[in-house]
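Researcher: Please generate the 3D structure of the following complex. Treat every line as part of one assembly.
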Amino acid sequence: MSSSATGTSRCAACRNQRRRCPTDCIFSPHFPSTDPERFDAVHRIYGASKVAKMLEEIPPEMRGPAANALHFEAKCRIRDPVYGCVGIISTLNEEIRDTGTELAKLRARVAFLASGAQERQLGQDYTIVDDHWTEQQQIGNVVL
Amino acid sequence: MSSSATGTSRCAACRNQRRRCPTDCIFSPHFPSTDPERFDAVHRIYGASKVAKMLEEIPPEMRGPAANALHFEAKCRIRDPVYGCVGIISTLNEEIRDTGTELAKLRARVAFLASGAQERQLGQDYTIVDDHWTEQQQIGNVVL
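Model: Done. Output below.
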């Protein structure tokens, strides 16, 4: 019998729930006894049975990322009981909006500078042609 | 006795839980019977007792935004059982990273164009002075 089955090495969830930790415990791989805060957080927000149910509905190989995401969301809600994760989403959306405005300004600035450079180049070409013409005319005048 | 107290106009939560809807029901203002999906979503993810507990811990004037955020998070998790809201946060973070890269490129382009414009302006000033000198010299040569 494994140490997990005897309950001497229970996961954080089974320790919290004061029960034996079965060898096929749904929590055990994702909520180790060394990190009780991790289970406490999801337990406080979702409750143990909901977390177990959500993990059971996910393929085993995706349960790790799911447990991480649930822990993250639970921490967010403990930190911000009104908005939770949605507060972060709002902040990121604001940042994207601000960055979008800055991007639009920079694109306009690039367009302005690029067109200005082109105009100056054309202007410079015209000045050279014009100077050349004036020069020839002046030389002509002098010669004549 | 109000219609709510008699249970003839129960909120979505009390209807779901098959109980009378008290006048001071914690769910009633935020989970109307006209939108049963809203309560079903938070019930599925958090459970009714956790939702009630979370709302009770928040000042009454903030319970509306909190119920909206809980509903949003629950919908996210139903749609994406692995990542939930965290999936959206990851996507937004990627977008911010990409936009940051584009911003850096545009800033570099603006700096390049601005310095190029300055150089061209200086070059143009130099060309005009140089042309003028050449022109005078040529005229002088002709005159001499």
